[in-house]
Amino acid sequence: MPELQFKGKEFVYNHHLTVPFRPLEMHADKGIGAPHTDGNLIIHGDNLHALKALLPMYAGKVDCIFIDPPYNTGNEGWAYNDNVNSPMIKEWLSANPIGLEDGLRHDKWACMMWPRLKLLHELLAETGSFWMTLDDNEIHHARTILDDIYGSDNFIGCMIWQKVFSPKNTAQYFSEDHDYILVYAKNSSIWRPNALERTDEMEARYSNLDNDPRGPWTSGDVSARNFYSEGTYSVTSPSGRVIPGPPPGTYWRISAEKFRSLDRDGRIWWGENGSNVPRLKRFLSEVQAGRVPQTLWFWKEVGHTQEAKKEIVAIFGDADREIFITPKPTRLLEHILTLATSSESLVLDSFAGSGTTAHAVLAANARDGGNRRFILVEGEEYADTLTAERVRRVIKGYSFKGTQREELLREPLTFSKLKQANSLLEKVQRIETLDGPKFDRIKSTVKDGALIVTGESDVAETAPGLGGEFTYCTLGPPIEMDAILSGAALPVREALAGLLWHTATAQPFAPATMTDAPEIGEGVARLGAFSGRTFWLIYRDDLEWLKSGEAALSLSKARAISQTAAGNHLVFAPAKFVSRELLARERLDVDYAPLPFALYRLETA
Fold first, then answer.
1. Angstrom distance (rounded) from CA 355 to CA 71
2. ω before 596 within 30° of 0 (cis)?
3. Which of 110, 267, 474, 556 could lock 262 by a disulfide, CB 3.0 to 4.6 Å apart?
């Protein structure tokens, strides 16, 4: 398989392994609801460090990852600032921010993305999917990097999103009207996108010309151009007309025996006069529910960039302020959530920007009563004032004066549709009857060759909130070995417990499973059990206590621990006052791992 080579790759290939773990520090005053790290999260901090911080709790648990990273156009001003211990890479820092004149900007982009994509891959569930937006600047490099990390067999598709609705007359060559959305699965053999709802246009193709009790149907050719050795027989219509064979240059798709069987079952349509060339009836009741998603995403279905900016302006109420340059429309994220999530899914966006992903998750939950959760990571200073503030306003409601619109029907006006004008009017009337009470008015217009029915609500003061909560976090000091040894920076117990558990088991840590065991000793906590082994931690973030005998694994503690459950027990503690020989003599299946030295274990790539 081809492999992308870029300057600095050998230095960043395993850089994600050397990034220190940093605990999440919760800020109750900036979130909504009781702060906790197993619900919705908005994290302010470098996304490489934030992703590493999430590993102990969320490795292999994220169902859908969406990222909108820098496109590397040369005009964005993003900076490569990962602390890789290499003189060559440090030399690049003097050239930041990256611009059009930087001949190594593509290498730097690859160096920046590689460790982040590796950590995202670790966080993704086996049944999960990864989605990334890009344009032509890096799409070809991204494909090769992702093939390397995920495996080319797990490439699902490349979506084309029509991001603008009118051509740019100032374009030098072509008006760039689209972006790409790359989709990978952790395991393509088990991941499948959800089906989309069938459209009214699709339903309208079915009718019941012969009042078949099996319901509406449409018809398809019984013939095809592909050669079929048994496909040249004659057929006799109900009117008695003999058709000597399929149309010239074609073959019947099925054998004569199969044709007669289908005809007896009323699945062959001969036309209203009973003498036409036969066609195969396909019943709506037998069509699979929903429709297969396509790779072309038009703005009418998923929104465009101008719509995204209008959403931000409506929420923040400042049309003259450039709040965010490249937001994504909520409809685009809602479409991805429809395809990639269930009502209980966990969604991660590590380039959160204006917070569209959280908005879409909250909207989806409000719509279907789901319990989807989101984790957003944003490193810029606007993480609080824009990203989190948008989520606060969407949850609580926000000041707004104007008209809110919700599209209820979009029906392309084809010639066949115009011949069924009465059915179109009936659809509009049904919408007015069923949805009318929810809006101030129902408006019907014809635009761009389609009948559009929209529900409009006049809002004088406040747009209603979607409900929900989230916890706002920043990144705490790194859990560094030298600092622990000197007592200069002792991590909180929950952060240390999560790191030790994940390091020892390669499984995500659930804080709720950690229980104090004061009956065994002060500072003793049971972390949980995995693969026949129970894990324990003796720790307090108090240097004097850690130096005392209370912090050591003693024979009495080992006896008490071994009696709690059968099987092996591993105890993390600063010291021990019992030898391995004595533990063996007493037949206590208890192992000891010293702190902080247990933290020196390095993962392998």
1. 18
2. yes
3. 267
**213 domain-assigned:** yes
Q: Alpha carbon of 13 to those of 101, 111, 126, 246, 307: distances in Å?
A: 26, 9, 22, 61, 39
Instruction: Looking at the structure, tell me whether residues 551 and 507 fall in a common domain.
Output: yes
Using alpha carbons, list the distances in angstroms from residue 407 to 332, 456, 470: 15, 9, 29
**Both tokens assigned to 26:** 């919760």
Answer yes or no: are the C-beta atoms of 203 and 284 closer than 8 Å.
yes
CB burial of 125-157 (b: ≥16 within 10 Å; e: otherwise) equals: beebbbbbbbeebbbebbbbbbbbbbeeebbbe
Task: Say whether both 409 and 343 belong to one domain.
Answer: no
On whether both 13 and 144 belong to a single domain, the answer is yes
Are 262 and 309 part of one and the same domain? no
Which of 68, 122, 154 lies closest to 350, judged by CA?
Answer: 68
Q: Bin 211: left if φ > 0, else alpha if -120 < ψ < 50, else beta.
A: left
- Phi/psi of residue 333, each to 5°? -70, -35
pLDDT of amino acid 541 = 86
The full length of the chain comes to: 605
Place of tokens 């500072």: 523
Cβ-based burial of 296 (10 A; exposed 0-12, middle 13-18, buried ≥19): exposed
Q: Are residues 372 and 407 in the same domain?
A: no
Tokens at 393, concatenated: 């306003």
Q: Does some domain include residue 176?
A: no
**pLDDT score for 78:** 80
Q: Using an 8 Å Cβ cutoff, are 336 and 364 in contact?
A: no
The residue ranges of the chain whose pLDDT is under 50 are: 320, 597-605
Half-sphere exposure of 126 (CA within 13 A, CB side): 3
- The pLDDT value given to residue 104: 83
Alpha-carbon distance of 310 to 323, in angstroms, equals 11
Looking at the structure of the chain, the number of domains it has is 4
> Which CATH number covers residue 363?
3.40.50.150
Picking from 233, 251, 286, the residue at the C-terminal end of a domain is 286
Q: What is the DSSP letter of 228?
A: -
pLDDT of residue 323: 59
Tokens found for residue 215: 């319901």
Instruction: Confirm if 145 and 286 have CB atoms less than 8 A apart.
Output: no
For position 17, what pLDDT does the model report?
Answer: 83
What residue numbers bound the domain in which 242 lies?
200-286
User: Are 591 and 571 a contacting pair, CB within 8 Å?
Assistant: yes
Beta strands in 245-311 (DSSP E): 251-252, 268-269, 279-283, 296-297
Taking the model in full, what pTM does it have? 0.77
Q: Which residues contact 5 (CB under 8 A, 6 or more apart)?
A: none
pLDDT of residue 116: 96
At 95 the pLDDT is 67
Q: CA nearest 43: which of 310, 484, 355, 268?
A: 355
Helix axes 389-396, 305-316, angle to 10 degrees: 70
Give the pLDDT confidence score for residue 596 in this predicted structure. Answer: 64
Tally Cβ neighbours within 10 Å of residue 419.
9
Tokens 């324990």 correspond to what residue? 536
Q: Is 294 contained in some domain?
A: no
d(CA 349, CA 327): 13
Say if CB 200 and CB 411 are below 8 A apart: yes
Q: Looking at 399, 416, 445, which one is the last position of a domain?
A: 399
